[in-house]
Write a structure and sequence with these properties.
single chain, four-stranded antiparallel β-sheet, elongated, alpha/beta, six-stranded mixed β-sheet
C-alpha cells in the first residue's frame, strides 16, 4: 500500500526539497494504517508492508529515509529485516515497535543498529517525535524553520521551541496540553471528534474514558480563553474546534 499526498505541513524536508520518506512495517493492518495516517499528516511520504519480505521489496523501490517496524513479523524478526535492508540502504535508521515484555527483542534491535524503539501501547506523538530524531541524526533531511510556527488569530504556537503566545503574552502548557493545542491549531475551523483527538494525542488503544478530552479542553480554555474572546468551541455531539476570537 502506498500513501502520498501530504495533508499537513512539514518542517522536515529532504535536501532536494521533497518529502521525507517513511516505511511502516507491521502485520496488524489497522495499526499500520493508523501510523501511516499520522505520518502522512506530518507531510511525509509513506508506504507500508505487512511482513519482512514485503518490507525489503518496498524499501528497494521506495528508498525510505527511516523505517518504523514491529520487532515480531510473520516471516522474520525485525533485526533480521534490518540486516537485509542495510545491504542496500546502509544508513537507514529503524524505530522498532515492541511489546512491553519484549526486553530481549528491544536489545537485539538496538544491537543490530536499529536506532530506537517504543513499547506498545504508545502514543502517535511519541512515534512522530522519535522518528524526527532519527531522521535528523541521519542527516537525510533538513529543517524548514518557517513551517514550525502555527498561528490562529492572535494565538501562535512554535512547534520547535514549544512556545505559545496569545496577543504577545506567553502561555505555559503541559506536554499533553501542548499536543492537544497543536492538533487543534493544525486544523483551524475544523470540528475534531473525541475519537480523533484520543487517537492523535493519546495512545492508539488508550484505555481511558473519552471525558479525558473534555478535561484537557477545559484546561486549555482556562489558559487560552480566560478573559479573552473564546477561541476553543464545542459542537455538541460532534467535537471541538479552534478559530480566531471575535
Amino acid at each position: 500500500m502506498t500513501t502520498t499526498s501530504p495533508q499537513g505541513r512539514t518542517d522536515l524536508l529532504r535536501p532536494d526539497g521533497s518529502a521525507v520518506r517513511v516505511l511502516v512495517v507491521d502485520d496488524e493492518a489497522s495499526l499500520a494504517e493508523l501510523l501511516s495516517m499520522a505520518l502522512r499528516y506530518e507531510g511525509w511520504e509513506v508506504r507500508s508492508a505487512g511482513d519482512g519480505a514485503g518490507a525489503v521489496r518496498s524499501a528497494r523501490d521506495f528508498r525510505p529515509d527511516v523505517v518504523v517496524m514491529d520487532v515480531m513479523l510473520p516471516d522474520m524478526d525485525g533485526p533480521a529485516v534490518l540486516g537485509r535492508l542495510r545491504r542496500e540502504l546502509p544508513d537507514v535508521r529503524v524505530l522498532f515497535l515492541t511489546a512491553k515484555d519484549a526486553v530481549e527483542g528491544r536489545i537485539a534491535g538496538l544491537t543490530a543498529g536499529g536506532g530506537d524503539y517504543v513499547t506498545k501501547p504508545f502514543s502517535l506523538e511519541e512515534v512522530v517525535a522519535r522518528l524526527r530524531g532519527l531522521i535528523r541524526r541521519t542527516g537525510s533531511a533538513t529543517a524548514a524553520r518557517a513551517g514550525s510556527l502555527l498561528a490562529v488569530g492572535d494565538l501562535t504556537l512554535d512547534e520547535d521551541s514549544h512556545e505559545v503566545t496569545r496577543g504577545g503574552r506567553s502561555i505555559h502548557l503541559t506536554a499533553t496540553e501542548f499536543e492537544l493545542l497543536r492538533y487543534l491549531m493544525r486544523n483551524p475551523r475544523r470540528v475534531l471528534s473525541k475519537a480523533q483527538i484520543l487517537d492523535r494525542v493519546w495512545s492508539y488503544d488508550f484505555g481511558g474514558q473519552a471525558n479525558v478530552v473534555e478535561l484537557y479542553i477545559s484546561y486549555l480554555r482556562r489558559k487560552i480563553d480566560a478573559g479573552r474572546s473564546p477561541m476553543i468551541h464545542t459542537r455538541r455531539g460532534a467535537g471541538y474546534l479552534i478559530k480566531p476570537g471575535e
